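Students often ask why we bother predicting the structure of a whole assembly rather than each chain alone. The short answer is interfaces. A chain on its own may look different once its partners are present, and contacts between molecules only exist in the joint model. In this exercise we take two input lines together and write out one structure for the complete complex. Read the inputs first and try to guess which parts will touch.
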Amino acid sequence: MSFFKKLRDKIVQKSGEVTQKFTEGLTKTRDVLVGKVEELVRRYKKIDEDFFEELEEILIGADVGVTTVMELIDGLRDEVRKQKIESARELQPILSERLVALLQHDGEQNTGLSIEKGRLNVILFVGVNGVGKTTTIGKMAHMLKQQGYKVLLAAGDTFRAAAIEQLEVWGERVGAEVIRHAQGADPAAVIYDAMQAAKSRGVDVLLCDTAGRLQNKVNLMEELNKIYRVVQREVPGAPHEVLLVLDATTGQNALSQARTFGQAAGVTGIVLTKLDGTAKGGIVIAIRNELNLPVKYVGLGEKMDDLQPFDPEQFVHALFAGLIEQEETAEQDVNKNP
Amino acid sequence: MAFESLASRLQSAFDKLRGRGKIDEAAVNEAMREVRLALLEADVNFKVVKEFVARVKERAVGQEVLKSLTPGQMVIKVVNEELTQLMGGDVAKIAAAAKPPTVVMMVGLQGAGKTTTTGKLAKYLLKQNRKPLLVAGDIYRPAAIKQLQVLGEQVGVPVFALGDQISPVDIARQAIDYAKEQHLDYVLIDTAGRLHIDEALMDELQQIREVAKPDEILLVVDAMTGQDAVNVAESFNNQLEITGVILTKLDGDTRGGAALSVKAVTGKPIKFAGMGEKLDSLEPFYPDRMASRILGMGDVLSLIEKAQEAVDAEKAKQMEQQMRQGEFTFDMFLESMEQMRKLGPLEDLLGMLPGMNRKAMKDLKVDEKQLARTEAIVKSMTKAERANPDLLNASRRKRIAAGSGTSVQEVNRFIKQFEEMKKMMKQFSGAADKMMKKGKKKGLKLPFAGKAPNNFPFNFKPPFK
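Now the answer. The structure tokens for the assembled complex follow.
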């Protein structure tokens, strides 16, 4: 049985609706990445340097990242030499398999949230400005509420104008209380208060918003580190999750973000937002390959329930849907004419 | 390696050229391969990179370079010129309608920074004695209207809002009428963030455009955007005919390849750049300076301009005179420090100096608090003490420490550093005269321009860790 067929069989067992969301959300990614690779394979009968160069460009064009792409291409070159592959068509499955492997190489990593009943779970949201931290918190609060958790929100973005109000609107929408101070207050104090409130109210999950900050602002990163320390001190074992919210349209700077935020706040996972609009998603591959950070959730739209757990298999399926269908047709053909 | 800045990547590429007496095609190829990689890592769109590299190669290889005495410089020059051209040549200004109000529409993806930038633009216009009106046209995102109202209050400009139940098209129409009534000369319309592929919302923007007939449609782009920047810019441009671009979050450590691509693909100028969290951190975008900053030549021009804005020329001249005579008092120290302060955060200033690329900056942490402490020490001295440091005996030092909330040790350290600075100034006063002439020629009017770099007023103790 082919690799893709196995993949598909696995996915069939999962909810069809979620798969559809993934597929729809990733249409553009798929068109750009897979479509171009196909077109390339069709155009180049033989494998030569130009072929590799174009392939390199396609992958870089999808924000996969220079380092990762170079590794990938070098691997393909070796493969071509070893197996004496001549036609581009023969190389295509190898390429697909390698891309999938990049996404799954740490497949055993837990992509779920580490939330346990019977304790206060603290989740910290960090990231640069404008990636969608507050919106993601709103969506996640909605998701957790539906799963039956008691949720409390902490308005830790005391810097940006009306960020607190924005979180309050979300709190109202999903029916979760918000702990807030005035704008300009010490965010660590807000989080501290929120943790005390969460303890006394017997809350299951506390979602902490923080102000967006560029990772090269040392003072702001230290402020974040202080928040992190306060959380650590007040609740044993907390923060149970530190989620770095990343805008999927971000280019290679995402790696720098993941690295620096990881140092300041011990990031445990990534939420990739705005994946519905971007032509790419390649940054996911770069992040998995260069930093050992799992993508835990993806934002696939503007609605309250558009936050989905990230599933590498579904991601790959959505990404390579075209290839899978093709392979199936090919297989059917073989079956018809043995 | 992966996180070296574009500047340092290019620099290391050119270092390879520098070592050679003459330049040949192989050498250029080698350097251009590095340039290509560096640009790609900087998120410059690969198509743009391809064209760019081809163009530079063509210009660099051959006669032009072979004839040159310093081939390395020649290639840098070509790269710099092409880079500048790619980024759009001249500085672009914001439009002004013949008949006010000038209508400016802000568009872009979610989270690019439209609302914040709208506030910053209002502040920028206010500084130029314009009367802007902010229009809250983002009725979708929770609290977006409130955000603009808070910004309006901070900046001190009126905000036109009709709540989130009225269509942005109507809001725009009524806002322009309101601006006419109130004789406001700029109308800045904030719009909701939207995906460039969202047809319904893009259609809404077109309707606003028809009603508001904007003189300027500015696309707000996050400087950290990857390869997709090109698609975003292209489709906003195709559907709305944008007139310019504002690049936000350029103060991050992104290499800002988006800046290079957007102009190349749309042909529309980048007019402003968001350079910080504060509301006055919107700056005109200077393509040539940006190009030389990327190439590691520093943004000397921006620094000079900032200095000219903030420094009192008269005072600076007087101080120069005194310094040249080897005179240096605590008063002068305080004054030069205050003038430096006016230029903005020290970190920003250092970033503009040549040789101070982002990589070097990373380990430099400017402690503004340390500066404030130093200032407090000086301010706790009496007038007599400031003019005559010799007066400072133990009990006076104790008083100063108490007055400034520092310790005697800190006061001692500072006085020692101050004495050293003074000594150095005397030593260099001869050399300084020569520097002066050079500095004047270039029109440098920095508080420390009269002296050799060693006399930089903050030499007393590097306030960096």
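Check your guess against this: Residues 23 and 112 of chain A are 20 Å apart (CA to CA).
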